[in-house]
Amino acid sequence: MKNSRAVVMFVVALVAGLAAALSASRWLVQTSADGVTSVAVATQDLSLGEPIDANMVHTINWPAGSVPAGVFKDAKLLEGRVVRSSVSKGAPVIEGQLAPVGTKGGLSAVIADGKRAITVRVNDVVGVAGFALPGNYVDVIVNTQEPGKTDQLSISKTVLEKILVLAVAQQVSREDTAPKVVDAVTLEVTPQQAEKLDLARSVGTLSLVLRNQVDEKRLTTDGATKDSLLGVAAPAATAEPVKSTRVRYASHHAPKRDCIGVISGVTSTQECF
């Protein structure tokens, strides 16, 4: 009797334990499901101008409370989109990192709205020894002849400031920071700056000046000439000679007098009274 009662109590305790475990398991599963969401992340490093295909992204569970704004929950929505800002492997792909829908791959995809890309020929000096890399900012200096001068003095003047480097040669990746000496640099400019840059390279030689990426200051300079470089003072302005003005005064005629001629031998004189 006692054994039967013990067996019944054991079975009841076992059933209750299983029910509690099952209930706890369901609660944990439900809580876990509510606490995560699907997010599309990159399966490899994505470079600027690169179209995304199905093998480059996949979805993973992401804590619901820390989902970045603009993420995609379905990886299929990313197929065919073009990357405008580099994405690291394992990072979520955000709408702000992509070019508009329908954009084709290539350099044109990374050009900002309202801007243009223009390429200038450089050498190892003009190209800042290869340190002007995609993503850096440069100033553009032109060396030409100073206008309006009879002796045609040479002048160097900054004509454009804080210009974004889009590409060096055919490289647009901003991940590689190793210097590269190339023969061409592509810059992002406004249409007005493109006209100015095109004129500058036709009237003189160009130089690029690398600047700090967070430096927003704009400076107005007078340019450098040979005289300012050597510390030669500008010649003083020559005063224009004053033109003499001949003043004519009205003549007052003396009262008319009577005169007679006197001839003495071969000499002739005039006597007035």
SS elements, strand count: 10
Outline type:
rod-shaped
The stretches of 5 or more residues where confidence is low (pLDDT under 50) are: none
**Overall pLDDT, averaged?**
79
Spatial gap, N to C terminus: 187 Å
Report the C-alpha radius of gyration, rounded.
44 Å
Strand content: 25-35%
What structural class do you assign from the helix and strand content? alpha+beta
Largest sheet: 6 strands, antiparallel
Describe the structure.
This protein has 273 residues and is α+β, with helices and mostly antiparallel strands. Among the domains are: 36-106, Antifreeze-like/N-acetylneuraminic acid synthase C-terminal domain (Type Iii Antifreeze Protein Isoform Hplc 12, Alpha-Beta Complex), CATH 3.90.1210; 111-214, no CATH class. Helices cover 19% and strands 26% of the residues. It contains 3 helices and 10 strands. The chain has helices at 2-35, 191-203, 226-230, and strands at residues 36-42, 57-63, 116-121, 137-145, 154-168, 184-189, 205-211, 224-225, 259-264, 267-272. Strands 3, 4, 5, 6, 7 and 8 form a 6-stranded antiparallel sheet that branches. It has a two-stranded antiparallel ribbon with strand order 1-2. A hairpin with an 8-residue loop joins β4 (137-145) and β5 (154-168). The protein is rod-shaped, with a radius of gyration of 44 Å. The model has no long low-confidence stretch (mean pLDDT 79).
